[in-house]
Specification:
By secondary structure, the protein is α/β, with parallel strands linked by helices. It is built from six helices and twelve strands. Helix 4 runs parallel beside helix 5.
């Protein structure tokens, strides 16, 4: 009788353990299914793109953002991803927001074109952030730049050191009211500037452009320089005393 009771109790324990394992298994499977469902649910299915001051982004910009579709809505650095993509418009990402369950909202701000790079084959418009664009823009009065040192447009942007130097030269000329027309970058120590309505070339380097531009403004305003009758060809401001080269 006691042995039969022990066998019955053992069977009850085995059945109880099996039930508990079944319950745990059902819970685990349920959680896994729920996680998979959530993973599929909270994925980007729609990208809403807006330009500040406009209703919607141009079609080519929207098309360039399609790589975001089907990515997880959370735990992804979309700002970093977008910064590595060559966008067809000179824009800067200004805001990211999310709408459950699957919509990513992106707001962009148009960047002004800073200058134009001309090569023997192509013309590139350069934004304030240094990105290259080959499409035409309505902006007028842009400074023309020629880069004769080794460079490649394949990266989609101008080398930061060169870009920041060019921006400093352009801003310095605007501040000093120097009518800058073209910049020819021969190398880091030889940059040629030409001004509107002036025949001579002005030479500076990239290390201290603001200082040399201030010296240039003073020289151009001096009566001695204006009184020179020789045909001026080049004024080199890279030395302590500017060097004027004239036609022989």
């Amino acid at each position: 009788m006691k042995k039969s009771h022990r066998i019955k109790k053992q069977k009850q324990l085995d059945i109880g353990g099996l039930i508990r394992w079944l319950v745990v298994l059902i819970v685990v499977v349920g959680l896994a299914t729920a996680l998979v469902s959530l993973y599929k649910l909270f994925r980007v299915q729609t990208v809403e793109c807006r330009l500040l001051g406009a209703e919607a982004c141009p079609d080519d910009l929207v098309q360039s953002l399609q790589f975001i579709i089907n990515q997880p809505l959370f735990f992804v650095d979309f700002s970093k991803q977008i910064s590595t993509v060559q966008l067809p418009q000179p824009v800067r990402l200004s805001k990211i927001s999310k709408k459950l369950p699957s919509t990513l909202r992106l707001s962009f701000q148009l960047e002004p074109v800073a200058y134009v790079i001309s090569t023997d084959q192509d013309i590139f418009f350069v934004s304030q952030s240094g990105q290259l664009y080959q499409q035409q823009f309505e902006q007028t009065g842009l400074v023309q730049v020629r880069l004769l040192s080794a460079w490649s447009h394949q990266s989609g942007s101008v080398e930061l050191f060169i870009h920041h130097s060019l921006l400093a030269i352009i801003a310095g000329c605007q501040q000093l009211k120097l009518p800058l027309q073209t910049i020819t970058w021969l190398d880091n120590s030889t940059i040629q500037l030409s001004m509107e309505n002036r025949s001579e070339i002005f030479v500076i380097d990239s290390q201290q452009p603001n200082l040399e531009l201030h010296r240039l403004a003073l020289v151009l305003q001096s009566g001695e320089y204006q009184a020179l009758t020789q045909s001026k060809q080049e004024l080199d401001l890279r030395f302590k005393m500017p060097v004027l080269r004239t036609a022989r």
